[in-house]
């Protein structure tokens, strides 16, 4: 299949994430794919559920920590998103090839922070499950303006931090276990597509598959 982005782009993004633990890429998806995802998002809004903290077996809802509503995606069911899944395949491949990771899975959800929602500072790791390697967030907020809130706050190792505006088409990727981050209170509805590239400890399938 034809590559979605050039190798030169991938090399510079992989350099960025290796050096700084995060990379920010504007207009990551072509217009057509971006619009398809946004329409899909809007069509699913009635089905979103209040997000919890923790894993499937140990999930707690606590809107003082996290105020978003999510809709988990499923590649087999959500076939309208196939062009997006193809990009996910490419992202996985590029991390494996140029960052020497062994990624072999992913999980993605749509996220809606209603006005007033936020997410406290955290790492994208669970105590009882530590296979999230790379976090990927793509923002779908058209007409986002200064003052709308909902910025992603990324913390550096020295404790200092900076804000990333959740503008439409922007993609942020970061190392899930290394980069503490938070979502500042949003003053408008805030839309994103968020996922994690997963490390799966060497299963037999990797050798024989
Ligand atoms: O939407 C964002 O900017 C980040 C969301 C987040 O941190 C999460 O879902 O774990
Ligand atoms: Fe997070």
Automatic annotation (TrEMBL):
Coiled coil: none annotated. Residues 99-199 form the Fe2OG dioxygenase domain. GO terms for biological process: cellular response to hypoxia. Keywords: Dioxygenase, Iron, Metal-binding, Oxidoreductase, Vitamin C. GO terms for molecular function: ferrous iron binding; L-ascorbic acid binding; peptidyl-proline dioxygenase activity. The keyword Transferase does not apply. It comes from the Bacteria. Pfam families: 2OG-FeII_Oxy_3. The keyword Protein biosynthesis does not apply. Its cofactor is L-ascorbate. This is 2OG-Fe(II) oxygenase. It comes from Flagellimonas olearia.
């Amino acid at each position: 299949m034809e590559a979605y982005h050039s190798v030169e782009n991938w090399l510079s993004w992989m350099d960025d994430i290796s050096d700084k633990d995060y990379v920010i890429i504007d207009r990551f998806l072509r217009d057509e794919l971006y619009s398809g995802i946004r329409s899909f998002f809007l069509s699913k809004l009635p089905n979103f559920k209040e997000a919890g903290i923790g894993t499937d077996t140990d999930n707690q809802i606590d809107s003082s920590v996290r105020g978003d509503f999510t809709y988990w995606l499923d590649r087999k069911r959500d076939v309208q998103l196939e062009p997006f899944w193809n990009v996910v395949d490419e992202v996985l491949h590029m991390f494996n090839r140029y960052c020497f990771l062994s990624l072999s899975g992913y999980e993605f959800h749509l996220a809606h922070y209603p006005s007033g929602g936020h997410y406290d500072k955290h790492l994208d790791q669970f105590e009882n499950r530590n296979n999230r390697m790379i976090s990927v967030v793509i923002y779908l907020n058209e007409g986002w303006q200064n003052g709308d809130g909902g910025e992603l706050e990324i913390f550096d190792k020295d404790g200092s931090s900076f804000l990333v505006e959740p503008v439409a088409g922007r993609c942020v990727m970061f190392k899930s276990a290394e980069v503490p981050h938070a979502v500042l209170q949003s003053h408008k509805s805030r839309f994103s597509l968020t996922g994690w590239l997963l490390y799966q400890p060497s299963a037999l399938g990797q050798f024989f598959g």
